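Please check these two lines:
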Amino acid sequence: MTRQSIGETLAVRLYAAETAIDLALAETATLAAMLPSARADAYLSAVTGQRAFDGAAGAVSALSAARSHMVQTHTALAALARKLGLDALAVGPIDKPGDTPPIGGGGGDGPGVHQDMVNKALTDTVNKTLPYTAELC
């Protein structure tokens, strides 16, 4: 395997891990948001289910910390890729800060971004399509 192909494989796994954490965070936050209404709809005392509230809040906090660690990992891997002189590695439809114009069609607001460029394929981008080998759980 070349360093480039190893980097591409890591980029796919990094994107999968980031996506998994975001999905878990969104689902857990939705659960936490539903708990007060569920308690009230069931005509239960405010003290009922407090441990469930605390557990859900703790899980949201832990997932937020995990997301922060994954962002730090992403930054460290990107810096290492630059240091090793690897081509730009990108996976997924996500715009990154500084993508002008936005690569994934995220709207963007940087200089030189026009409405007619949004949500259209760009031909001269440094990012390239990588084979999608990760499957979401």
